[in-house]
Amino acid sequence: MTETHIVALGGSLLRPEEESGRVKWFADLRDLAAKLQQNGTRVGIVVGGGLPAREAITLAEPYVGDVHALDEIGIAATRLNATIIQQVLREPGLDVAGMIPLDCDHAASLLGEHNFVVMGGTTPGHTTDAVAVELAIKAGAGRCIIATNVSHVYDKDPRTNDDASPVSQLTLVQLGEICGLGKPRQAGASVVVDPVAVEWAIEANLAMCVLDGRSIDLLAAALYGREFSGTNITI
After folding, report:
1. Cα atoms in the Cβ-side hemisphere of radius 13 Å centred on 82
2. What is the pLDDT of residues 51-92, one digit of tens each?
3. CA 35 to chain centre
4. Helix, strand, or coil (residue 24)
5. What average pLDDT does this structure show over 91-100?
6. What is the model's pLDDT at position 190?
7. According to the 3-state scheme, what is the secondary structure of 221-235?
8. Are the CB atoms for 152 and 139 separated by under 8 Å?
């Protein structure tokens, strides 16, 4: 039976500070993809905007007052990053869809034809975490992997709480409490998983996990169902 996995890949992962780090990360990602293809595994990758999105929005913000218009700029950046990943993976001759789908229905359909489908954002107001959860639901994946630049979900914001502790096991409801699901968001607030994504996962009974995507070995362990350092989020 063909396995389908969905990965939300943080945009920050594409830009390690040192060039040697970038070269190794992309090479490791391609090697992992080749092994997954040999096993017949299908993977949908939803790529975040990272620094290009932040820079573009900052550049336009003084002249663009519409929040949705700024979101469209951020979405364009996610699709740029998605195209980078798509082309990096196509180089070794892997079975990667030749287009960046603009919605999850199209992406799920392409996953029926290709081993790898790469996409960015879709709709203003929806983060790529939420898009990944939507794609996981529509593609029939058993779990959504959030690969970001932090190692775990913490019980409280580690940037403002010295006593914050990493958590290895959570339920979706507990994750919602940590992410502030159902509570007003403060301007500039940042959480490791988008509350909308958590809400959709709860409604769909979709398991999740959070790991440090800077290590392709950790991502590989999660994709292969092995133990890994990170946070498992159960139904």
Report:
1. 30
2. 999 999 999 999 998 999 999 999 999 999 999 999 999 977
3. 20
4. helix
5. 92
6. 58
7. HHHCCCCCCCEEEEC
8. no
Round to whole Å and give the CA distance between 141 and 53. 28
Residue carrying structure tokens 């794609």: 135
Mean pLDDT in the chain?
92
Using CA of residue 195, residue 142, residue 8, residue 212, what is the dihedral sign?
Answer: positive
Convert the pLDDT of each residue in 123-151 to its tens digit: 999 999 999 999 999 999 999 999 999 99
Q: What are phi and psi of 71, to 5 degrees?
A: -60, -40
Report yes or no: 142 and 126 within 8 Å, Cβ to Cβ.
Answer: no
The two structure tokens encoding residue 233? 């989020």
Tokens of 185: 């968001």
Residue 200 has pLDDT above 50, yes or no: yes
- Amino acid in position 163: D
Buried b (16+ CB within 10 A) or exposed e, 197-231: bbbbbbebebbbbbbbbbbbebbbbbbeeeebebb
Rounded to an integer, what distance in angstroms lies between the CA atom of residue 169 and that of residue 128? Answer: 23
**What was the pLDDT predicted at 123?**
95
Residue carrying structure tokens 């999850």: 104
CB contact at 8 A, 234 and 207? yes
Helices (DSSP H) in 48-189: which residue ranges? 50-60, 67-90, 104-111, 128-139, 172-179
Residue-wise pLDDT for 164-193, tens only, equals 999 999 999 999 999 988 776 543 345 789
DSSP 8-state code for residue 160: T
